[in-house]
Amino acid sequence: MARFLIGTIPVIGHINPIIPIAAELVARGHHVCWYTGEQFRLKVEMTGAAWRPMKRAVSFYGTQGMDAFPERMALQGVDRVRWDIENVFIPDAAKQADDLAEILADFPADAVLCDTMFLGARFLHERDGGPPWAKLNITVLGLPDTAGDAPPLGLGLTPGDGIAARARNRSLHWMSDNVLFRDLHQKYRDARRDYGLPEGNGTLTDDLLSPYLWLQGSVPSFEYPYRNLPPQVHFVGPLLPSSGSSFTLPSWSQEIERKQRPVVLVTQGTISVDPKDLIQPVCRALASEDILVIATTAGAPIDTPVPDNARIASFLPYDRILPHVDAVVTNGSYGTVQHALAYGVPMVASGATEDKIEVCARVEWSGVGVRVKGSPPREDHLRNAVKRVLSDSKFKTAAQRIQSEMQRRDGPKEAATLLEELARTKHPVTATRSPIGKN
Q: At what angle do helices 393-407 and 334-342 cross, to 10 degrees?
């Protein structure tokens, strides 16, 4: 049996997608060790993996999302992404690498698996010959693209068609690398130099991609078409949590099952959880509609009156709720969107923080829902978008098309099989494919 070392940023949205992979590896008899913050120790150990603490790297980002950093909460869009990269992800790379080296001294892993922004595995591998490392991307694809098939991340743009669109995308990539994020790419190169690595001329975007294996927890139909997708990128399908069958639903859940009126679920995921951003505007927007609104808050308090047609819960298991839901309103949480698509549920997407602007753009592009811009979005725009998704069957048809594609995949099993190959061969795990895009 192989030994796998997992390393994740201590934020729930970075950890949840890896949980089913870790559980599958353990079920296959492999030894799994997981390095992350102590607040997630129980989640780690429930998979059967052994937990290891973060000693040098930042181990606590907050109780709700990343609220341990209040200065970032006032930022939006690209500014918040820049703050995260400059103040958290780059400074922690060397510290993560040193922690991993200490763990590997008594747990000689055959391969490392980490989330998108966990940089320590690359640093250790390049300098000290650490194990080959795989990435599980927890959001949309944002790879270097010299062909111009897709715009750079952070702008929320759809790719467009034809020569002119590709020229625009190439220009935007140049602007992103050489203007918008130029200083951050230099800070990343400085961090490499300080750790004893060649500074090089590449960018952080270049180095996020593992040369060995990149796991994408979705299907090609949800992603922009790339003609030059790297061969080590594998779409494995959604990575859904285990069944919530043991969870006790609130007493009002019978209203959902009776389906006497359309049911709309509104959720803000696990990072940007302030209800004022989306949950409260949606509840107000739909207060006079013959719609049952279900809102999950991730524990964030709601300090305003709740309309009569709204029901509030801190958490609800998606596999118990989504079969009865007619539409989802999301702030662009990648995990929420993948869950909704796995159940063929169309959606309204409105978000502008972290990666969410990009997820919302793909909801619009793939045809599975309506995108509402604005931060916060206008209530009349939200109401009109929800009514449109409920009344126009094309959105549900598009969502069910992607659902059908997802049903042919088994994310945890496919990911575990690819990781086993990496651990066995120590070489890039590649695939032969056609360019991706809408089927």
A: 90
